[in-house]
Amino acid sequence: MKVVFLEEVEGTARTGDVKNVADGFARNYLLPRKLAAPATDHYIAVAEQKATKEAKRQDRLDSEARERLLPLVEGQEITIEVLVGEQGKLFGSVTTRDIAERLNETTGVELEHRQVSLAQPIREIGTHEIPVKLTRNVIANITVNVHPEGGLPEPEEAEEEAEEEAPEAEATAEGETAEAASEEAAAEAVAAEPAAPVPEEETATETSDAPEVAEDTEKGNASQDGS
Predict the structure, then answer these.
(1) What distance lies between CA 88 and its chain's CA centroid?
(2) What is the pLDDT of residue 83?
(3) 172: enclosing H helix or E strand
(4) Structural domains in the chain?
(5) Sheet containing 77-82: which strands, arranged edge to edge?
(6) What is the largest CA-CA distance in the chain?
(7) What is the pLDDT of residue 193?
(8) Nearest residue to 58 (alpha-carbon basis) of 117, 14, 96
(9) What's the CA angle centered on 59, arms 55 and 60, to 5 degrees?
(10) SS3 call for 191
(11) Which of 13, 160, 177, 224 would be 17's cystine partner, CB 3.0–4.6 Å?
């Protein structure tokens, strides 16, 4: 169906636009709400008048935004603190509503969350450049710093902690080296010890048994000869 738009429909058309749309979309949504009308000469003339008035109104809004709002918002830098887990991941996310509220507190400019152009919620810490639509044609750019709750450690503090940990690490390494050297020396000392000698008493005993056996043999032979 060919219709002329009497009001702006975001993402579809502006006032005065003539477009072909689906029949169901026209009958069930656009026509009942008087957002559009059949594209007849009469309704096209009506829509053009409304479009002219809308253009003048928009020019006035843009001028006011450039003069009064843009200097207050452009280049603003805001910080939002969030809870962060061990892996550096945010618990939840930073939304357009969070940014709009903080920007209102900082600048005093009343903004709706839909004016913050954020494709998806922020889920990472760091610095993010975000556009803010003051009007349809006037856009300000701001910086949003997402920090862990409590803030990031200062560089000097981090260096001091590193310096304090370094001597402890060196002392631990030296202790481990000394302990390893001591164990190695003990092992070498054990390996260098001579084998234990065989006791002399056992050898002597085995040797002394031989004459006794021989003596008994001689006595036996003498007895046989005498008989």
Answers:
(1) 4
(2) 86
(3) helix 155-192
(4) 2-62 (3.40.5.10), 74-148 (3.10.430.100)
(5) 77-82, 139-148, 126-133
(6) 170
(7) 54
(8) 14
(9) 120
(10) helix
(11) 13
Residue 117 region by backbone torsions, left for phi larger than 0, else alpha for psi between -120 and 50, else beta: beta
CA quadruple 94, 98, 99, 103: dihedral sign: negative
52 φ, ψ to 5°?
A: -65, -45
For the segment 93-103, what is each residue's pLDDT rounded down to a tens digit?
A: 899 999 999 99
pLDDT tens per residue across span 170-224? 555 555 555 555 566 555 554 555 554 544 444 444 444 444 444 444 444 444 4
Cα 177 to the center of its chain, rounded Å: 38
Length of the chain: 227
What is the tens place of the pLDDT at every residue in 132-146?
A: 999 999 999 999 999
Q: Please tell me the predicted confidence (pLDDT) of residue 61.
A: 95
Listed in order, strand segments (DSSP E) in the chain are 2-5, 18-20, 36-38, 77-82, 126-133, 139-148
- Tell me, what DSSP letter sits at residue 40? -
Give the contacts of 27 (CB within 8 A, at least 6 positions apart): 1
Express each pLDDT in 5-17 by its tens digit: 999 998 899 999 9
Q: Pairing relation of β-strands 126-133 and 139-148?
A: antiparallel
Distances (CA, A) of 38 to 46, 118, 127, 160: 12, 36, 49, 75
Whole-prediction pTM value? 0.57
According to DSSP, residue 33 is labeled T
Interior CA angle at 99 toward 98 and 103, to 5°? 120
